Amino acid sequence: MLIDTHCHLFKQDYSNVEEVINHMNKNIMIVSADNLKTSYEVCKLIAKYDNVYGTIGIHPTELDEYKIDNLNEIESMILTKGIVGIGEIGLDYHYENTDKDLQKEVFISQLDLARKYKLPVVIHSRDAFNDTLEILKNYTDLKIDLHCYGYSLEAAKQFLKINPNIRFGIGGVLTFKNSRVIKEVVSELDLKYFVLETDSPYLSPEPYRGKQNEPYNVIYVAKYMAELKETSLDEIAKITSENAIKLFDLNMKK
Ligand code: NI
User: CB of 87 within 8 A of CB of 113?
Assistant: First the structure.
């Protein structure tokens, strides 16, 4: 069994979401929302499929129409069966004209929500290592998935130092020819720190780089990781699935 711990399976990107989910067979997916609208879509999807779980939340680049009341709506969905975390939330300083203060405020509010309901969080952090680390120092009680991890090995060690329950989400970027930094992170750290993801519809792994991604492709990430760690695909599937089940407290629906 493989678990894609992070994907976005919404109508805006796929003409047939059902087909994409069925392609995963009995493997498991955790669908991440990025705003209020997709949070509602996540709730619908998890009600429909036994092998689909979800996280809800507001992404740092989705704040243009943000209102404080949005968080009350997110909270109202939290107890839906199959919601296993808050995400994806975080900080993204990649673009100019970024309202960093608003990003921090919304990130922190959602971390508080996760704490209140004892839920893990799925974090997006881009070009914002220092602020992410500083904020997470106040949330060492939380279980955390640093999704699409893109910082250095040294940074990974700093994260683990403040919170040993941080896990790193590894996706298609691992298979890219020039992704030296992430290959180093995976080579050097113990397998217990990793969960697999696709971040579908983005970031397809080789040999499908540039095409639309789907959760099924998580197998190519797993295969690549097996080669890097000089172990079998079965071993990677087993350990990363165990890690994901522990991180998200997945009580198998069936
Ligand atoms: Ni994502």
Answer: no
Q: Which of 130, 138, 80 is nearest to 109 (CA)?
A: 138
b/e code 86-114 from CB counts within 10 Å (16+ = b): bbbbbbbbeeeebeeeebbebbeebbebb
Ligand 1 centre distance from Cα of residue 197 (Å):
9
Q: Residues 98-108: pLDDT tens digits?
A: 999 999 999 99
Task: Read off the pLDDT of residues 1-10 as tens digits, 9 standing for 90 and up.
Answer: 999 999 999 9
CA–centroid distance, 200 to ligand 1, in Å, is 7
Residue 206 CB-density burial (10 A; 0-12 exposed, 13-18 middle, 19+ buried): middle
Q: For residue 60, count CB atoms less than 10 angstroms from its CB and return exposed for 0-12, middle for 13-18, buried for 19 or more.
A: buried
pTM: 0.96
How remote is the CA of residue 15 from the centroid of ligand 1, in Å? Answer: 19
CA of 28 to the centre of ligand 1 (A): 16
Q: What is d(CA 93, CA 74) in angstroms, rounded to the nearest whole number?
A: 24
Ligand 1 centroid, distance to 248 Cα (angstroms): 16
Specify the CATH number for 3-252; select among 3.20.20.140, 3.40.50.720, 3.90.228.20, 1.10.1060.10.
3.20.20.140
Residue 43 predicted with pLDDT over 80: yes
State in Å: Cα 44 to ligand 1 middle: 19
Q: How far is the CA of 88 from the centre of ligand 1 (A)?
A: 7
In this predicted structure, the answer to whether residue 236 has a pLDDT above a threshold of 70 is yes
Hey, how many other C-beta atoms are within 10 angstroms of the C-beta on 158? Answer: 14
